[in-house]
Amino acid sequence: MKKLLYLALISLVITSCSFEPTKSTSFSVTVELDGIEEGTFYLTKGRGSQGVLVDSADASGLVKFTGNVDFPEIYYVSLQSKKGSMPVFIDAADILISGHIDSLRQIIITGSPAQDELNTFSESTNVFDEQLKKLYADYRIAYQEKNEEVRSQLEEQMESLREKKVDFTYKYILENNTSVVAAYLAYQNNYYFELSQLETIVRGFDLSIEQSSYVQALKDRVVVLQTVAIGKPFIDFTMNNTEDTPVTFSSLLTGKYVLIDFWAAWCGPCRGENPNVVAVYNDYKDKGFNVVGISLDKDKSRWLEAIETDNLAWSHVSDLQFWDNTAAKLYGVNSIPHSILLDSDGIIIAKNLRGQELRDKITELLD
């Protein structure tokens, strides 16, 4: 577990709420937004292709949704033909959404204790976000001016701030183990935490919220991550290569150290890391190092173009299912770039080695 870095200079009082199911599980959501002439409002549980329609209402009349919820949960309100949606933490309460349809990021949500807690937490982390925003602006200038020394310094500062924000969030989650909002924050930020931290979080939740969707999702994720933890053997799978020929992953393991590289043509950080992987691959491919690329693309032509453009001269597979990629689910991947290093016996020995860290590790193993 990473050593926790608590901010002693920040004194923030955050009120937590315990959301135990009560006899009343009914909710209502009234929408009063200016600037609407016509259309249909939708309330969905989840969004995008994963969203399930809960209720709808004509924008020309009173827009009010009703339903039942056992535990507080994020729902989404959207207007037909209007880009974007409004997330709202729904619990058993009468909730009001007000504002203007052209400023969805500035809407006001009242009546939801869960939303109030989430807002309070977000306000407490603004100190990190504002500093990161300023550092990133400086970083862009340094990048344009090709000032490598300043870029390196700013990268270290940004990474330090990110770690402090993660540690602040981790501490909040542990201290508010009866809060569904804390469980939501844990789920939303799970890719920032070590497996040992996630295990501690899951064990610490109060029984009163154990059946909430976020706690259950976290438990499922921990199980997956435990199967692909460092020291565990690789999990085999079959997927098509660039020529649409099925390839079994184990057939690509030929007694070499293998880097499983999860990436996508549309992923900027992935494309930015590719030159580093290419350089290490070229230096060590004849000494016992190989790479297998697993793409989370949907567009095959863009995938193939990126392989050629970035000179990725190793084996590639994909089922072109975006985040539903079979291998990504098996290996618990929910952010990219993501990499897993296997030893010559197919045992996982490291994860997410990038830049100089990857080169140092391969040098240690093969030089």
Q: CATH class of the largest domain, anyone?
A: Alpha Beta
Distance between the termini: 29 Å
Helix-and-strand structural type:
alpha+beta
Domain module count: 3
> What's the arrangement of strands in the largest beta sheet?
13-12-11-14-15
Task: Please give a structural write-up.
With 367 residues, this protein is an alpha+beta fold. The chain folds into three domains: 26-112, Immunoglobulin-like (Sandwich); 122-227, no CATH class; 238-366, Glutaredoxin. The chain has ten helices and 15 strands. The chain is globular.
Give the arrangement of secondary structure elements.
Blueprint: E1 26-34, E2 40-45, E3 52-58, E4 63-68, E5 73-79, E6 86-90, E7 94-100, E8 108-110, H1 113-124, H2 126-144, H3 148-175, H4 180-188, H5 195-204, H6 213-227, E9 238-240, E10 246-248, E11 257-263, H7 268-284, E12 289-295, H8 300-309, E13 315-317, H9 326-330, E14 338-342, E15 348-351, H10 356-366
Parallel strand pairs: 1-7, 11-12, 12-13
Antiparallel strand pairs: 1-4, 2-3, 2-5, 5-6, 7-8, 9-10, 11-14, 14-15
Summed up:
This protein is of the alpha+beta class and 367 residues long. It has helices at residues 113-124, 126-144, 148-175, 180-188, 195-204, 213-227, 268-284, 300-309, 326-330, 356-366; strands spanning 26-34, 40-45, 52-58, 63-68, 73-79, 86-90, 94-100, 108-110, 238-240, 246-248, 257-263, 289-295, 315-317, 338-342, 348-351.
